[in-house]
Every structure is written in C-alpha cells, then in structure tokens.
Design a protein that fits this description.
There is one protein chain. The protein contains eight helices and nine strands. It is an alpha/beta fold. The chain has one domain (5-238): P-loop containing nucleotide triphosphate hydrolases (Rossmann fold, 3-Layer(aba) Sandwich), CATH 3.40.50.300. It has a six-stranded mixed sheet, with helices on both faces. Strands 2-1-4 form a three-stranded antiparallel sheet, with helices on one face. Helix 4 runs parallel beside helix 5 (168-183).
C-alpha cells in the first residue's frame, strides 16, 4: 500500500471540455477508486485521451470539477504519473532518464541512482542502462518511460495507448510491466484500442462515445454482454 493512498478516490463532477465552443467531453460524472484496473474504450474521437488528460490534470475542464480525496493535503501531481503513446526521452542515458524524475522529486544522488538501476532491472533493461535513450527501440523507450514513472511510486498511473506503436512482442513486455505495477499497489487507468489487451488487463471498462460516458461495468460483463447499443455496435465493428 502506498503512503498517501488517500489521494484516491478521484472524482469528476459534471466535467465538460470544449474547444472553440465545441463540446468534446459532456458532463462526465466518474469516481475512480483504488485497486481495480480501469481501461477506457471507445471509437476514434470518443474522447478517451481527453478524459485521461482531464483526470491527470494536464487539461482543465471548461465546466465541472476534478477533485482528489479531501483527506489528501499534498500536491496530487507529485503522487501520480502519466505515460504516453510516444514517450519523450531526454538526451541522456536510459539510467539518467529514470533518475531525472527522482532528482526533480528531491531525492539525493546516490539514492536516485540506486533506485533508477533497480527500476531498469525490473523492466528488463539494466543491461542497457548506459545506452542513449533516444537510440533505443520504441519498445525499449516505452519500458524506460514506465520505469521512470514507476520509480516515483505513484498512487495512480495514467497510460495513454501505451502499446499502440509497438509490435506484438514489445506489447507483451509492456503489458507484463503494467501488470507488475498494478500488483505493486498502483492504480492503473489506461486507454487502448486493442480489445485483446483490454481483456487481459482490465478489471473494469469505461466506454465513451462522442464524449459521453455511455457504460461502466466489469470487464468480463462488458465483453460478454454489453448493456448499451453503442457498446454492442463498437464490439461488433471491432471484431470484423
């Protein structure tokens, strides 16, 4: 259990997001609690990535409110992390990329180097610790990004299409790391277009359609008996 787990639940209260007067997210009401792995599904343009960024705090809603647990008195951004589809690698080694986040968090040099090495070991990249991160493959870079996020021991980890650009072998390696982070006590909230991946990793599904939360249910129920016509149509089209 993470210290500071009182950061959760995360509550979205009638959250909307608009650009130039066009609503892209419509009155999203949502509570995310610790424990379960939450996967956000929906067709292209449904608002999955926008919803994730609103949860993380990268975007501010144009209406409504995003709030963390009232018992938490620290900075929520220090207890959460986000990994993108194409992670940004600094112009330095894989080890230095992981250590940099720990430096920003105020950790001393020896401790951050030790933890960065430990995290690279946990994602299977310790042997590449001194390699320039930007020269690594896409799958290796994504594993560095996950190590960098995991090193901060976040209460919540947001993942936006973390394997969309990867081949099957690299995707499986990333999925194994995500599962390990979950088992270590971090709340996982992720988007994906890969229904097989959603089946493997999700405990619950949030299904968005045209910026609205249409269905929220256990993953096994969603895939076996979706409750809404929008979800049924989505699964039918994705299986063609």
């Amino acid at each position: 259990m993470h210290a500071g787990v009182s950061l959760l639940p995360l509550v979205l209260d009638r959250v909307s997001y608009a650009v130039n007067g066009t609503a892209l997210i419509h009155e999203l009401n949502l509570t995310l609690s610790a424990g379960s792995r939450t996967v956000i599904l929906g067709p292209n343009g449904a608002g999955k990535s926008l919803a994730l960024r609103l949860c993380h705090g990268l975007l501010k809603p144009t209406a409504g409110r995003v709030r963390w647990a009232g018992a938490f008195t620290g900075d929520p951004m220090r207890r959460q992390a986000m990994v993108f589809q194409r992670p940004v690698m600094l112009r330095r080694s894989a080890l230095a990329n992981v250590a940099y986040g720990l430096k920003l968090a105020g950790m001393g040099r020896t401790e951050r180097t030790d933890r960065a090495r430990s995290m690279l070991d946990r994602v299977g990249l310790l042997g590449l610790a001194d390699r320039p991160a930007r020269s690594m493959s896409g799958g290796e870079q994504q594993r560095v990004a996950l190590a960098r996020a995991w090193a901060l021991q976040p209460v919540v980890l947001f993942l936006d299409e973390p394997t969309a650009s990867l081949d099957p072998a690299a995707s499986r390696a990333v999925e194994a790391i995500i599962q390990a982070i979950h088992e270590a006590g971090t709340k996982i909230v992720m988007t994906t277009h890969n229904l097989g991946q959603a089946r493997r990793l999700a405990d619950e599904i949030l299904f968005l359609d045209r910026g609205r939360l249409v269905e929220r249910t256990a993953a096994n129920r969603f895939f076996s008996a979706p409750a809404t016509p929008e979800a049924r149509a989505f699964l039918r089209e994705e299986s063609l």
